[in-house]
Amino acid sequence: MQSLERGLAVIRSLGGTPSLTLSEIAKSTGITRAAARRFLLTLERLGYVGRSDDGYYLLARTLELGYAYLSSHALPQIAHPHIQKLAYDLDESCSVTILDRQSIVYVVRATISRLVGASLSVGSTLPAYCTSAGRVLLSGLDGDELDAWLHEAKLERLTAKTVTSAKKLRDEVRRAGTQGWYLIDQEIEEGVRSLAAPLHDAAGKIIAAVNVSSYSTRVTLDALHRKFLPRLLKTTAAIDKELKARR
After folding, report:
1. What is the DSSP string of 183-242?
2. I want to staple 55 with a disulfide (CB 3.0 to 4.6 A). Which of 19, 148, 183, 222 is the partner?
3. Is 89 helix (H, G, I), strand (E, B) or coil?
4. Is the pLDDT of residue 114 over 80?
5. Using an 8 Å Cβ cutoff, are 6 and 39 in contact?
């Protein structure tokens, strides 16, 4: 099990970068250079990793891992047309994310040609603590689960508005759960606002979040509440209805 965990850590370390040297991979994964080399040789032989003069890089075969998830779960298939329509209606990029430890992971993405979130795609990750989707997803954890999550969390200040107090974050997560949606204002990046609402399984448990992001110079807080929120909630209700019918 430890070997599998370390092998996957090596694959994750190569995500989001053209290439890494052996030393960089060992440092980012916390394993020795010798161990990292063994895992890289195996991954290279299996066709998941390539090697050049600049270092190691992921090969297209790694897409099989992500495609296996997308093709075996109803959520991305059901949500995709709804998210595309929402993005078209609001003229802003929209996404569906799930919680993975300390991060949110994008499983559906409809991108409008703007700079905000332009580098994000399916499989991208962002910190959960300072994103609207993250706080919505955290509101689905029970008390003990949230305690454990906060104990592990590293709350770094990314902007002047980023919440870095565990107590304050807990209050904001509770607010997200109470109101059934969450608006974040320039906590992950200056000038970026994001609105999110939850998606549920047949038992009513939060399993994902839909979010829409925009620049503060383009969309006011009033417009987010008055125009964006009703359409977001209508979209999540429609996806929830289809998810329940599928089961």
Report:
1. EEESSSSTTEEEEEEEEE-TTS-EEEEEEEEEETTTS-HHHIIIIIHHHHHHHHHHHHHH
2. 19
3. helix
4. no
5. yes
Mean pLDDT: which of 54-58, 73-77, 104-108, 165-169 is highest?
A: 165-169
Structure tokens at 233: 């909630």
Measure the CA–CA gap between 173 and 196, rounded to whole angstroms.
12
Find out if CATH 3.90.215.10 is the number for domain 2-63: no
Q: 3-state DSSP: the chain helix, strand, coil percent, rounded to 5?
A: 50, 20, 30
Cα–Cα distance, 56 to 49 (Å, whole number): 7
Predicted TM-score (pTM) of the model is: 0.76
The 10 Å CB-count burial string (b at 16+, else e) for 167-192 is eebbebbeebbeeebbbbebbbbeeb
Identify the CATH class of 73-246: alpha beta
Alpha carbon of 105 to those of 38, 68, 125, 225, 230: distances in Å? 28, 15, 5, 25, 24
As a whole-number percent, the residues of the chain with pLDDT over 90 amount to 53
List the domain boundaries for the chain. 2-63, 73-246
